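2 proteins. here.
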Amino acid sequence: MPRQCSKSWIDTYIQYTRHQEASVKFHNWIGLYTIASTVGRNIYIDRKLWKIFPNLYVAIIGPTGDGKTTAADIGVLRILRSIPDVEIIIEKATSYYLLELMHQLTTKKGECCCNLYAPEMKSFIGDLNKTELVTFLTSMYTCPDAPEYRTKQQLQKGGIYKFKNVCINLLACSTPEWLTTGTTTDDISGGFTGRFVYIYEDSITRHSPFPEDLITQATLDLEKDLIADLNHIKTLKGQFIITDQAKAEYILWYMDRQKECKDERLKGYFSRKRDLVFKVAMLISLSEDDSLVIDEDTLKQTWKLLADTETKMATAFSGVTDDPSMKYKDSVLSQIARAPAQQITRSDMLRKNWNRFDGMVLDRIITNLVDMKVIQMGSKVTIRGKDALYRLIDTGVI
């Protein structure tokens, strides 16, 4: 059956969501997650001793009220949930529930492919790297063929969970504040969160106060086309072919890729980028046609998409540090920059952040910023008496 979308699936999806205010960057990756969740293990790149499947762990990061969850709901609840036989787990899932579900899928279908959607990453993950759920999702990222998994409960019973043909996709939404307070540098650089692609945007560039007045029947028809083409994409099966020219381009990039990681907090992401490039390239190719071919143009599109994503990725973790008091350094600096005349008193800073940190933490942050010669500290006489004054002197760091 010919495809219904006149453009690529992703381009059509961007057109379909153009009146929703979230960043186009968010919609791009939600679209890729939707395709990945549809195809599961149907398509792959054969590395002889292992295979690369196009599953993704995607984190959509932005401030509260930026429309990220609404954007994700459109992709998951309106589009993906319309595709038959696609297993979706929404909201918080316990490790026990997920293990039981995957055991049942293995028994019934001979494979256990499921897709997780967490509108709030904080509530989904809980204690990062301390739960069986996190450990399980970390080990299942590579889509193993026949893994065995032991939980504490199963070990006590002397049993194990056995799965077959695993494929898990994960889409989670979060605020940068939770990433700052809920993660550490070790969490980000490796392990579970190191397997994520972090999509960060801190501003809204599209404004639709009354989107219902703009969404026409033609837009709703695009939804039908998107669902029809996803159903078609779901039928595609087989091995992706990489053209000789694409291989040559990849080799050049691969040999020089170590220079890309300029932030230790993203070491986990960049160390896995060699496979991520192929995952995304497969999804972009599936979005365009049924060829199951990755050529040099597909790779160039992939690198551009990843480069655009990486420009702000580190910003999402600007407050993630081994020193708890430094978690709020960027927030303090930002507040000074936004204050009238780019200066603020110590008492006003503490009033603004009474529920986040105390004076001892603030003093350590200020000392660090003064030593960096980013701010200058003076004094000011107020109605409350003499008060320390913080003034921004290097606007280049904002």
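next one coming up
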Amino acid sequence: MELPYNVSEKMAAKKTVIAFLSILIIIVIIIPILTFIPRNHNEQEIIYPVDSPSIPSRGFYIGVLSVPRDEQSFEEAYSKAAEYSEFSPVWGRPTQFYDLAKDLSGSWVRTFLEQNIRGNGMFPLIHVSFMGQDLTFMTPPSIEKPTLIDEKWRESYKQAVIDVVKSSKPLYLSVGNEVNRWYEKYGVGENNPNGFQHYVSLYEEIYDAIKKLSPETKVFCTFAREIISENREADLSVLSMFKPEKMDLLVFTSYPYCVQWINRPSDIPDDYYSKALSYLPDKPLGFSELGWPSMDVFGGEQAQADFITQVVGRLTRGQEINLHLFG
């Protein structure tokens, strides 16, 4: 039997209302539930560096470790340094690697990192070192007598570096300072649990982990150009142990006056730095620390000024080196 028009119209309207209410229930109840379902644990968090500096017209960044003069505050010293430089090194207070992330996310970072460095328009070069005094291990209290093949220690160092990246979001990260000093002391003996080859493998693990977390962070470890305690040049062949694709910059600390036969900047051979690039070709070169004293025996302040001029001239750019960091 055919229903009257007005009855069928009412039934159609009723079905429309029911359908609308069903959709509303899905929106109000089901969708909020879905938002609380945990994400896939394999989904990788991505972070980005806070710093995005432009390279100055001189072609490289200058860095200064600000040391206040008598009666000068840290705030004044960093403000003055920022008039001439673009970056500042950060080791924490200095701080053990396993506490550095905590420092960088606490009141210390608000004062030094955010106020004194970034607040003055500079960027930090973050160092996370694993070596303690006399080339021994820094290690959390829970780990006794670690070695470079100790999985628990390796994981603690790797996680500490990851935590530092999360807390400070740096553009430049050094995963170990003057690491070749460890190589000079412990070598690469096959049966040596502290052989330098075990650090290299750990560095590469950390490099990969940081690149997944923060792809734009420039990752490297820092090498000593001189073995100061022995008044000699360091063995540069250690650089061949590293894969070039896992070293974003080649960065040195360098105090060449400590080498026995170098007494004036003019004594430094033209290829003193460029020969290192035979092991890691085409890498930008950086100095996280660089120094020449103003003592008379080493030529006084004039020699100090000459050294700075020669490092940015005949010793780097004069050798067609891409000088990137001049600390």
